[in-house]
Amino acid sequence: MQPVALLCSEPLRPRMAGIGIRYFEMAKRLPALGVPVRLLSPFRTEGERQAIETELNDVAAVTYAAGSINQAIEGCRAVVAQGQLANEVIHQAPEMPLVVDLYDPWLVENLNYFETLGLDPYRNDHVTWMLQLSAGDLFLCSSDEQRLFYSGLLVAAGRVNPKLVGQDPGLDRLLRVVPFGVPAELPEATPILPERQADERRILFGGLYDWYDPWPLLDGFASAVASGNPRWRLFIVHNPNTGTPQVLVEQVRRWIRDAGLEHNVEFLDWIPSDRRYDLLRDVDVLAATHKDSLETRLSLRTRFLDALAAECPILVTEGGAMSRQLAEIDAGWVVPEGDAGAIEVALHEIFSDGERCQRKASAALELKREFSWESVLAPLVDYLLDPWRDLTKTEFARRPETHSPRDGVSFRIRRKLRRLAENFR
Prior knowledge:
Shape: globular
CATH architecture of the largest domain: 3-Layer(aba) Sandwich
Structural class: alpha/beta
Oligomer: single chain
Number of strands: 13
CATH topology of the largest domain: Rossmann fold
Number of helices: 21
């Protein structure tokens, strides 16, 4: 059988984030499900490419360079593509069956960088989404919430049209839910944090992105420490994307210094992907708090699936697919937005109420089985074994224009000064 090309926009390397891990896991698991693959990535070094290929055994890992898509996918039966690189398939190999992976709603995430980066990212992201929505044959999303969101966009792009709906009323051949998965078994545990002190309790806030809301967690944590829990420790993981703004990280650092919590809070570098379960097994709870926003409602929060795999208790704010599913089966602690008091209460329960923790852990095991890689990949496997092209798009698809004003004069001056300063470093 001809292979399927998996085109990942992120360089695959030891310290991968969610998208890189997603494509590595797909490349590892699809062959066992009857789908041979070729993994394409803008690898940073030949050594990193060779390391990934060795780890994947019989899967070919190819360093992808811009403009070489036809050569890279030669002999493939279909392409699964994510991010900006999907554009190259559309422009250079328009006859190839194309699965556009919309698991990560990066346009929505990047809206949070407007104050720092201006409107250029929005313009670029919007043009890209409109192109991809007009051209893909199958679209992947992470949840029912995302499926409804992308259905509306596909209506606007002319992809939900009379001919297609007549053949496929439920849009199952156009848009499928393929979330992140969890492995059935984890590697043997190797501690990654120092040995615990007596009575130490550990909270992990993994990946501090600018659209998160750590303040109620910090307030609840500070209150607990001040009221007689000096052994509580909070570990915060940096955002791994050093090329993006880190405004929130710097604000949190200042808050911690001002609150006198330097001995209770520690920042960690991004953990190599094959050690992420070790970190989760070294802490007592994984927490992430956020505000009610479009990003929150569309996010699956990949790190919580990792926590399910590691059987690590989860504390999360209301909102979003993962919070909904945890609340429905009482598999974690789901608190109201901005409620530091509820967070403090939840932390005390996690650290002291063993019976309640066990009940929630049993419910989490049920959710863990639902998200097994074999289960979540089934809709994609069904397509890749017999790829099709949506022929209605040639008649109905359209690309809505992208409009946005120019960045303001003061912003453009600041941006130019910032770039000049960077050139002199």
